[in-house]
Amino acid sequence: MFIAGASDPELLKCLHSHMAYFLVYHDYLVGQEVALAAGDPWCPDDDERCASWMNDINAHVTDSGGT
What we know:
Blueprint: H1 15-24, H2 29-38, H3 48-60
Helix pairs in contact: 1-2
């Protein structure tokens, strides 16, 4: 698998790509670590898309010692 430099850990970049891949393939551990490191984004109260995104992440992130 090659996603935004993932084949070489020294060149890992484009964290948004890893996060996006994780949102589709929930067993992608690099993306999961990006999601954990990113923390909670600021979502306006009326932004259903943002709330849905966070619910999806929280439902699929396993506890790996992160937040």
